[in-house]
Amino acid sequence: MRGNGVYPENSEKIPVIIDCDPGHDDAIALMLAFGCRRLDVLGITTVAGNTTGENAYRNALAILSLISADVSVARGADSPILRPLHTSRDVHGESGLDGLSVPPNAKGGDLSAVEFLSSTLRRSETKITLVPTGPLTNIAIAFLAFPDIKEKIERVVLMGGVAGQGNVTPSAEFNIFADPEAARVVFQSGVPITMIGLDATHKALVYPEEVEEIRKIGRVGALAAGLLDFYSLAYKARGFKGTPIHDALAVAAVFDEGVVKTEYARVDVEIRGEFTAGRTVVDFRGVTGKEPNAKVAVDVDRDRFLNLLMSAISVL
Ligand code: RIB
Ligand code: CA
Prior knowledge:
The chain has 316 residues and is an alpha/beta fold. It has one domain (14-314): Ribonucleoside hydrolase-like (Inosine-uridine Nucleoside N-ribohydrolase, Chain A). It contains 12 helices and 11 strands. The protein has a 9-stranded mixed beta sheet, with helices on both faces. Helix 1 (24-35) runs parallel beside helix 11 (246-255), helix 4 crosses helix 5 (137-145) and helix 9 runs antiparallel to helix 10 (218-237). The longest helix is centred in the C-terminal third of the chain and has 20 residues, at 218-237. The chain starts with 13 loop residues before the first strand and ends with a helix. 54% of the residues are buried. Residues 20-21, 23, 25-26, 50, 133-134, 247 line the site of calcium ion (CA).
């Protein structure tokens, strides 16, 4: 079985806050985050995206209780900054985690996502890495409301965007499409960004025989495979031979930068285009003359990613 590697326990844990919209791949990203033993997960904030804000919060609590992760969870925005909520129920189902019977609601924290982000960052003596895996609504609001917190951020490693073909429109990837105004705020914030977009995640497909390997990795492996059983249906219907666990690749890139190949480029977010709203316009060649503002993932070591994931699941 792959994934019998053990992470070096002596490596310094990276302090992170994960902002997510679970969502099947968000759920598996949380398994990786807690199983890899390389991250100090200070908290989870949730945001509407794949599903409603209420479902995302409930789903995050459920997944965290199923993997026995004891961490603060703060509920965030129920809609994008300016636009109506556009969920992806065609991929994640009505509940946002269809295919999983969600256990009764565990209790979350009392703070809102923006309050949690600002208070945790202000209080921290070390810089924190933010890992958004949904629309960037919470992050943008926090940056606008509390600009001082930006200096407490090591970097933002986000799942979102694409230099090539989109997945919601030909131009746009879902997380950016869902709240392009928020994405523009984040990409223009000056905070170091690593963009893990479809250019990389669509090359990190997990194939059916590998799902069966995952299913055999104990209780959490069976849980992850059950999520993938449902989540893969939408990709099969779109002609994919495997399933992209987009958000888990962003988490992996936090503690194992070599899992992706990145290029430093200028990224601007289109908010007006009739056909292109939500497009991350990536200037690899510097033709705009603008300062680069993001490391953009252009390739992935798929086997390395899968090993990281299976190793993490095996210790939960
Ligand atoms: O485009 C893929 C992204 O949109 C992933 O984060 C998935 O969970 C959805 O939010
Ligand atoms: Ca997501």
